[in-house]
Structures are given as structure tokens and as C-alpha cells.
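Here comes my example:
=====
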Amino acid sequence: MIPVSGADRVNLKGLRILVAGKKRESREQTERILTTGFRVPACELMHARTANEVEETLRRQPNVVVCDRELEDCDWRSVLIRAKQTPDPPSFILIADREDPILWLELMENGGFDMLARPLSPDLLVRATATGGRRWLRRKEIHRERNLNQWTGQKPEVA
């Protein structure tokens, strides 16, 4: 069993998480950590290893994408670009082989959410995914409020 403290178990009902990567072992490890850290079946885990599988899975509108640097026929950049083109873009978490500030900066400049390095810390992965899910939900809420305010003529509330 992968240790994830009870306080960090998260219940984000309906959270959809796409785990993408070339190596089956890496995807399975990530999925095991997330399955342990989240109350399943409250969340739905999907996986992809190719660009076509990513494309197909993005149609199911994941809230968070957890992506290794390499897939079988593309890299994380292609996945991020495609994810950003969806109607409600998911929070994007990159899993790198090592800590790399330059890669992190590139990810942030291109709209990514977070980057974690292997070996994965279960607590950090669960926390980052939960925060990404909450961020996605909040962005959707703000978007809905803006659309409602546009129709009603109300000014948006300042937080």
C-alpha cells in the first residue's frame, strides 16, 4: 500500500483525472497513488499512452491531466496544447524524471499548473491533483458567473 495520510484523503466527487504517459509502469504507479489518495469511485481515472488516446480521452472532459514527459508518439507539450483547446481546459500537472527549473518555467509559461519529479511523493501528487481539481472547479464557477452577469447586466463581485 502506498502511504497517504488520512488527513490528505480527498473527496472530490465527480473529479475526472487523465493519466498520460508512455511507460505502463509509470502510469500504473500514478494511478495507484491517486486511487489510494482519493475516495474512489468518487473520481474517475482515465489513461492514455498515445496522441490518439489523449484526443479521445479529452472528449470526456477530464478536470486534471497528470502527464509524463513522453508518450508513445508525442510529448507533454502536444498534450498540453491539445488540452488547452478544450472548452473547459483541465489543470495540467507534468511528471518529470527529475527536478528541472527550466522545464518548470516552460510549463508555467505555457499554461501548466504544476510539475512533480520522480520518485513521486504520494502526498504531493494527491495534493497537487486535488488543488488542480479545485482550481478547475473554481475557474468553471467564475466563467459561469461572468456569463450570468453578462446576461443580467450585473457587475461581477470583487473578491
The chain has one domain: 12-152.
